[in-house]
Design brief:
This protein is α/β, with parallel strands linked by helices. The chain is about 45% helix and about 20% strand. It binds S-adenosylmethionine.
Length: about 250
């Protein structure tokens, strides 16, 4: 007799969300503004590329709000992609691609060559400035004329070190209090994944790929805007921001 292991993908999604919200209590707010700007710029039935999709959090919010949307998720992490694929299995609006955004040919793995919106969150700070600018150069031709690219991420204004330090101290004190109340951080979450019979294999592979976390940069909104103009976008600016993070929108 074979025993079949069933995985509760929704509960993995929820635990991923709680872990990410420990770092960013306003995570849903940035997704909401992102989707407002999708609706404003390209309507309610967009073809979306969910860039560095992780478990597919953006795709999840997109389809809940716009049932006529479609989404392609791209990522390199086998464990997060396993959760994404498990969650959306059988949903013909969604597909996933495994690719390394640092690979010069990664766009060849995509099923379409044009998207209404390319959306990404809390991911591109895993890249250094040069590969990030190169990635922006690859993204511009993927966005149709009048389409949008949006990036929500940590974007630090290095010209205000004392303001940054004060804000960081308050944020970290709140995080520590939440830890005391049982919040799960990045390392704890990956330990839970490694202990799961279905996710243990892909989790071991993701640690071979990335180690704990890849290195990268968190440049200012101004840096992103100028890199996006340089990549060929026609307009670019922040459409939402917090003291440490921002959502930058670029229009083709
Ligand atoms: C913190 S997670 C965010 C995932 C998702 N966007 C979210 O908001 O929940 C960062 C993601 O970026 C992906 N990523 C980082 N570097 C990458 C690369 N070079 N190629 C593909 N994906 C990458 C990681 O695998 C991970 O899924």
């Amino acid at each position: 007799m074979t025993t079949r292991t069933t995985t509760d993908w929704r509960s993995w999604q929820e635990s991923w969300d709680r872990q990410q919200e420990w770092y960013m209590p306003d995570r849903e707010e940035r997704f909401r503004v992102m989707l407002d700007m999708v609706e404003a710029c390209v309507g309610t039935a967009p073809r979306v590329l969910d860039l560095a999709c992780g478990t597919g959090s953006i795709t999840d919010r997109l389809l809940t709000r716009f049932p006529r949307a479609t989404s392609v998720g791209v990522d390199l992490d086998p464990a997060l992609l396993a959760i994404a694929r498990g969650t959306f299995e059988g949903d013909e609006r969604v597909s996933f691609v495994t690719a390394d955004l640092k690979d010069p040919d990664w766009t060849r793995a995509l099923p379409h060559d044009s998207y209404d919106a390319v959306l990404t969150a809390t991911a591109l700070h895993w890249l250094h400035a040069e590969p990030l600018a190169a990635l922006y150069g690859q993204l511009a031709p993927l966005v149709r004329d009048g389409g949008v690219f949006m990036n929500a991420d940590h974007m630090i204004d290095e010209s205000t070190p004392r303001i940054n330090a004060a804000e960081r101290a308050l944020r970290h004190a709140r995080m520590e209090r939440a830890r005391g109340g049982g919040a799960v951080d990045w390392a704890d979450w990956w330990a839970l994944a490694a202990a799961d019979p279905v996710l243990a294999g892909p989790t071991a592979r993701r640690f071979e790929i990335y180690g704990e976390h890849a290195d990268g940069v968190t440049p200012s909104v101004g840096w992103h805007v100028s890199a996006l103009f340089g990549a060929g976008f026609g307009e670019a600016r922040a459409v939402w921001r917090s003291p440490s993070d921002a959502l930058v929108l670029a229009l083709r």
